[in-house]
Design goal:
Length: about 90
């Protein structure tokens, strides 16, 4: 009978709280994310969208929803359009 063996798919690296992984990303309150051909898109609960490029440069925020919450992001199949789903703080019953 063969013994099961452990497979290593990646290098183990422990990330400690407060470490200097990427100081810009650590301060964000990310609620959703999606990847495109050129950028990783990060959506915050405050309704802002940011992108992280291949050089790990974080863009300035773009306000997608002024008074609401950003729920989801998706890059269109052509890779040139970003679709955002969220609420804009409209009161219930109006």
């Amino acid at each position: 009978m063969q013994k099961p063996r452990r497979l290593t798919f990646f290098d183990r690296h422990v990330v400690k709280e407060g470490s200097d992984v990427h100081t810009g990303i650590q301060k964000l309150n990310v609620s959703c994310a999606c990847g495109g051909p050129e950028h990783l898109w990060l959506g915050e609960r405050s309704g802002e969208i940011r992108s992280l490029n291949r050089q790990f440069k974080l863009s300035a925020p773009t306000q997608a929803f002024s008074d609401g919450e950003l729920i989801g992001l998706c890059v269109a199949q052509d890779g040139h359009r970003l679709i955002a789903l969220g609420s804009d703080g409209v009161p219930a019953g109006t």
